[in-house]
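User: My advisor asked me to double-check a structure prediction for Copper chaperone NosL before group meeting. I don't want to rely on an old file, so could you generate it fresh from this sequence?
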Amino acid sequence: MKNNSLTKLSRVLLAVCGIALAVSIFTPIWSIYLNAPQYPEGLAMFLHANKVSGEYEIINGLNHYIGMKEIHADEFWEFKILPYALGGFALLCLLAAALNKRALLYLVTGLFLLFGIGFMADFYYWLYDYGHNLNPNAAIVVPGMSYQPPLFGYKQLLNFEVWSYPNIGGIIMIAVAVILCILAFLEFRKAKKAA
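Assistant: Sure, here is a fresh prediction for Copper chaperone NosL from the sequence you gave:
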C-alpha cells in the first residue's frame, strides 16, 4: 500500500491544481480581439465557463452583414457542463492529494488530458462552423471567402485583424495539464525505481 503513495510535493501540487481549477470556473477562459480601421480601440469577446462577455453584441451586429451567426450564450451546450466538469476535476485533484494514491494521480491526469483535447477540438469545430456556415442572403457576400477566427494566434479577416488566445482560466487549465503530466511522469519513474 505504501508503494502506491505520492511524494509530499506531488500532494501539495495536486491540491494547488484543484484550487486553481476551481478558480478557473470564475475567470475568462479564452479571449478573441478584433481590430479594424473603423474600430481602432478594438473589440473584445471573452469566453467563460458558463457565459460570453465583452463586446460580442457589437461583433454580432458586424457579423450580420457577412452572414455569420449571432453569438448567444444560451445556444452553447458547453456552458451548461463546463463549470461542472472543471469543478469535478478540481475535486478529483483534491481527492488524489487527500487519499495519497498514485493511481488517482494517473487517472485524473489521463481524464484531464482527454478533456483538454476534446475541449479544444470542440472549440475548433465551433469556430469552423461559425466562420463557414454563412447566410447566403447576407448583405456582403465574397465568393469563396470564409471567416473562421483562429483557434490560437492571429488571422486577417477582410479589414479585421483577429487575435485569439487563452485568458486567465485557459492559462490555468494549460498549466494544470502540464503540472499533472510532470507529476505523473515523476511518480511513475519513482515507482519504477522502487520496483
